[in-house]
Design a protein that fits this description.
With 979 residues, the chain is an alpha/beta fold. The chain is 47% helix and 12% strand. It contains 39 helices and 24 strands. A six-stranded parallel β-sheet has the order 3-2-6-7-1-8. The protein has a six-stranded parallel β-sheet with strand order 13-18-17-14-16-15. Strand 6, helix 13 and strand 7 (265-269) form a beta-alpha-beta unit. The longest helix has 25 residues, at 875-899.
Length: 979
């Protein structure tokens, strides 16, 4: 289809074709640096502006949340640029997991899930299995799946988790597996059936099961599937080479992809960068995409012009891919392609090599050579910021990678390596663990279950943590900490009554002392570069871990009867498991690469990124098998599709794809680096050797860093989302609270339960959803009570908090009263629990509206309150009412800007009001709304500028705040704020 030339002013012919081909199936093979994201964004804009596609008709899937955020920002910026009004909230844009979760939330009543279900991350899931491992071990021959008796229970649970997730991601049926003639497959089926039973009992869901439940929803609810199929008219999937079986099944259902139908389904990817087989991804999805449709029905576009790399770098990784034979038994397992450099930007004859090697014969020499190379780039070349350099490894946890990063840091080169398992090696974490051990002097004795018992982690506790803390306590500046800690430790040794704190409470008390408060200064957060704020962010992560422990082990306060058990659970189990598995440090999504640091990344982590200088390590790596014997049995006889790639060749295919991805991250300079070794463990490994030998050494006279211009690392400029209740109100109440609990994400230990308001809101939402589905006839007081009881049961199960019987009864009365008042008069309801957003120049303004009502062309906004009704004439209530007014003004602003409709009224509805008018109608004034939005803009500006200064301490809020101990001891610099 032809399109206006102006629209394509920046697109090359292949990109133009991809943008304008909107009808029917389309396969876009996008090589590295070929402007894939640009093409996707422009294609979406083209659909909106030239095809008049509404937001709810678009379905766009990305591989990661960060990619979704970047895509959202770029689309938003383009929409602002062309002056288009478009509500991104109504567009299905996100990862498969986030979109499936949205469907489950929208249609929960058609799934096994109840309200307030628990979402488990990988650690939660493994711990869930660990706590129930005996039930799985009771299955005859379970060792075939779980592992033998010699393995630890934690390792067994890890093995079990892997196989259960495999069954989920392949969408296999438990009953079919149970009946299998292969014993290990039958055992796996029994384990899976038991796991599904456990999930249902606990109203829980894991990362993989999100997609399974969504698939079941679509299969078992034809009406919902039909609605989605008719709504989602244009579908796009990015990184299609990394999709798995269950995602393909979901996509086929939504697209209605059959040989008879030509859905508007566009998939984008690069088979050469398929890296996620170990997570269930299959390259067959992209290689066989065209085969789903009759000949000539699926169009194909290849984006092969590279806008990223120097021609010599492109030539290097083109030759790397040609070094592998991709054909087997007459079948090709790669789309043949030749990546071409952009035109007319490079001299025809290279004057200086841009692919070189840095090496050494011993570890010390290698480290020193890498350091000297970095210094040379900085002192004699064009390196202006260390963030222009990225080191890529197969694993950043390897001994070689960790040793190199530690050497560089000791020699003044800051290293950003959040996934290198150094969390427990950081000084602030060792000090905190040492402090907690000091506070429980009984630990060295009670940790043993036998006289000769020993755990490896005890050496870490004693030598790395406790010894360090004890050494600090001897310093004069820590005398106040010593006195406090001794008194607490003495009390814990002979605890006779319940404390008013748990482990997280002690953590927050420790932050008041200079030994820890030195890591928390607001000035450190303002300074550029992640290194300055890494310690405070690690302490925030530590607070989250303590919070998780107290939730999983149901620890609310320390008690005499359970103290010893709690201590053993924390140190012998919880921290040990976390250290074994590794904890990632903070990753800043707002920065592409932190200023002032070189990045140490896994090759998988670097996917989709680019750096001026890329230094690729792990040259000792060899192709390795990623499948176990059970994988082979499943693949040959039990998967939904016959085998595709020959299993014996997959390790070679994946090896080429992995390092191709690494090499193609480089913009201006690609470096191969290693500790060279001959004989056994030869480095570089034979697959690299021919490529490595031909490269000039970096000290060769031909290598002139000054002649190689280096790009600056690109600015991410992601738009962050801000809402009135979660951001503006919290910031205005106390910017310091905002800094710790929102910006740094410390986990509060003293959370105020809002069970009452939540259960009232949720049950009223059930009423509204039933009405909006056209099922008003199903409403009755009995049904409302059933909803209330179910919501309360699952809410208390998740929150582990309860309402007193009379309070619970009062909550139910509020809901029943609302139902009676509106019975038979539901026609005014337009939408309920509406997520709304508005894209602004600097951020995305968002909110959740309880109810939008109105008749004809009027729009009224309603926010429900379960507290006592405020008196508009009472001066004491005015401050709160003013806050509610501003909240509704924000909602009115979003609704008017995104829809063009005028909001005629703004209401508060008090469900607590027994006989009087439950409404408080607030005046809507355009100038007042403008002032509220201007204030919001100012607050966001301060947050983005890391300005958390206070004019005075809000002492009324301090009483229940975890940070009160820190704040009491802090030397405040109060500011006169002119905002």
């Amino acid at each position: 289809m032809a399109a206006p030339a102006m629209f394509f002013s920046q697109a090359n012919p292949q990109q133009q074709q991809a943008i304008a081909t909107t009808e029917g199936p389309l396969l876009i093979i996008a090589g590295p640096g070929s402007g894939k994201t640009f093409t996707l964004v422009e294609r979406i804009i083209y659909l909106i502006t030239h095809k008049d596609v509404a937001p709810e008709n678009l379905f766009v899937v990305t591989f990661t949340d960060k990619a979704a955020q970047e895509l959202t920002t770029r689309i938003a910026n383009r929409l602002i640029e062309i002056g288009a009004r478009f509500n991104l909230n109504e567009m299905y844009l996100g990862t498969f997991h986030s979109i499936c979760l949205r469907w489950l939330d929208d249609h929960r009543e058609f799934t096994r899930l109840k309200r307030n279900f628990t979402m488990m991350d990988q650690f939660d899931q493994q711990y869930f299995l660990y706590r129930r491992l005996k039930e799985y071990e009771a299955i005859p021959n379970s060792e075939l799946v779980i592992g033998d008796r010699e393995q630890s229970s934690w390792n067994k649970s890890q093995s079990l988790l892997k196989w259960l997730n495999t069954v989920t991601e392949e969408a296999l049926d438990a009953d079919t597996l149970i009946k299998a003639p292969d014993l290990e497959v039958s055992v796996l089926g029994q384990c899976y059936a038991l796991y599904q039973k456990h999930l249902e009992e606990e109203n829980a869901i894991d990362f993989s099961t999100i997609q399974l439940e969504a698939l079941k929803l679509l299969k078992n609810s034809p009406t919902i599937l039909s609605e989605l199929q008719s709504k989602l008219q244009y579908l796009m999937v990015d990184e299609y080479q990394d999709t798995n079986t269950i995602q393909e099944l979901i996509l086929n259902l939504i697209a209605g992809a059959t040989p008879e139908k030509r859905p508007n389904l566009c998939v984008v990817g690069d088979d050469d960068q398929g890296l996620y087989r170990f997570r269930g991804a299959t390259i067959r999805n992209i290689l066989q995409f065209k085969d789903k449709f009759p000949d000539g029905h699926c169009q194909q576009v290849r984006l092969t012009t590279n806008y990223r790399s120097h021609p010599d770098i492109i030539d290097f990784y083109n030759r790397w891919m040609k070094g592998q034979e991709w054909e087997h038994d007459g079948q090709e397992f790669r789309y043949q392609k030749q990546i071409e450099p952009r035109e007319a930007e490079f001299p025809t004859v290279p004057t200086v090599p841009t692919v070189v090697k840095v090496a050494g014969q011993t570890a010390q020499v290698w480290h020193e050579e890498v350091l000297a190379f970095l210094h040379t780039l900085r002192d004699q070349g064009n390196l202006t910021d260390l963030n222009q350099v990225a080191f890529l490894f197969r694993s950043v946890k390897s001994d070689k990678a960790v040793a190199l990063s530690q050497f560089l840091e000791r020699n003044g080169i800051n290293v950003y390596s959040p996934r290198s398992d150094q969390f427990f090696e950081r000084e602030e974490i060792r000090l905190m663990i040492g402090a907690l051990i000091f506070l429980f002097p009984q630990f060295p004795e009670i940790r043993k279950w036998a006289d000769d018992a020993h755990l490896k982690i005890w050496d870490y506790y004693d030598q790395e943590c406790f010894a360090l803390f004890a050494q600090e306590l001897r310093k004069p500046e820590n005398q106040s900490l010593l006195r406090w800690a001794r008194a607490i430790a003495k009390n814990h040794l002979t605890l006779t009554q319940n404390a008013d704190y748990a482990f997280s409470g002690l953590f927050y008390r420790l932050l008041q002392f200079p030994l820890f408060s030195r890591y928390l200064g607001e000035d450190l957060l303002k300074q550029k570069g992640i290194q300055n704020s890494r310690a405070m962010r690690n302490l925030a992560i530590f607070s989250q871990l303590l919070d998780k422990f107290e939730y999983l082990y149901t620890v609310q306060v320390l008690t005499p009867g359970f103290l010893d058990k709690n201590i053993k659970d924390l140190f012998n189990q919880f921290f040990r498991f976390l250290q074994d598995g590794g904890i990632d440090e903070y990753e800043d999504t707002s920065e592409y690469a932190p200023s002032g640091c070189v990045s140490f990344l896994t090759i998988h982590q670097s996917k989709g990124l680019e750096f001026p200088v890329v230094i690729v390590g792990s040259l000792e790596a060899s192709p390795r098998k990623q499948h176990a014997p059970l994988n082979e049995v499943l693949e040959n006889d039990y998967l939904l599709r016959p085998p595709f790639e020959p299993l014996e060749l997959t390790k070679f295919f994946d090896f080429r794809r992995l390092f191709y991805t690494a090499f193609s991250r480089a913009q201006n300079l690609l470096v191969l680096t290693c500790l060279e070794k001959q004989g056994r463990g030869q480095t570089p490994f034979k697959h690299f050797l021919d490529f490595y030998r031909e490269l000039p050494y970096w000290r060769d006279p031909s290598f002139k860093p000054v002649a190689i211009p280096l790009e600056q690392v690109k600015d991410v400029n992601l738009k962050r989302e801000y809402s009135f209740t979660s951001h503006l109100t919290l910031f205005e109440n106390c910017a310091e609270q905002y800094r710790f609990f929102k910006e740094l994400e410390f986990a509060p230990s003293e959370t105020n339960s809002i069970l009452f308001g939540t259960v009232v809101h949720q049950t009223i939402e059930d009423i509204h959803k039933t009405v909006l589905r056209g099922e008003e006839h199903k409403l009755s007081e009995e049904q409302v009570i059933r909803w209330f009881d179910s919501n309360y049961a699952y809410l208390t199960k998740r929150e582990r908090a309860y309402l007193a019987p009379n309070v619970k009864r009062a909550a139910l009365e509020q809901v029943i009263r609302y139902y009676r008042r509106n019975q038979g008069n539901w026609t005014h309801i337009q939408e309920a629990e509406v997520d709304v957003s508005l894209v602004k120049d600097e951020y995305i303004l968002s909110g959740n509206i309880d109810l939008i009502q109105g008749e004809d062309n009027t729009v009224e906004i309603v926010d429900f309150k379960s507290e006592k009704k405020l008196d508009v004439n009472n001066p004491k209530d005015r401050k709160k009412l003013d806050r509610y007014r501003r909240q509704l003004e924000v909602y009115a602003h979003i609704v008017e800007e995104r829809t063009g409709h005028t909001v005629s009224k703004m209401h508060l509805y008090y469900t607590s009001e027994e006989s009087g008018n439950p409404y408080v109608t607030l005046p809507k004034d355009t100038r007042s709304i403008e002032r509220t939005i201007a204030t919001f803009d100012q607050v966001v500006h301060r947050i983005e500028g890391k300005d958390f200064g206070l004019a005075e301490r809000p002492t009324k809020l301090c009483k229940g705040c975890d940070m009160r101990f820190y704040c009491d001891a802090k030397n405040w610099k109060l500011e006169k704020l002119n905002h």
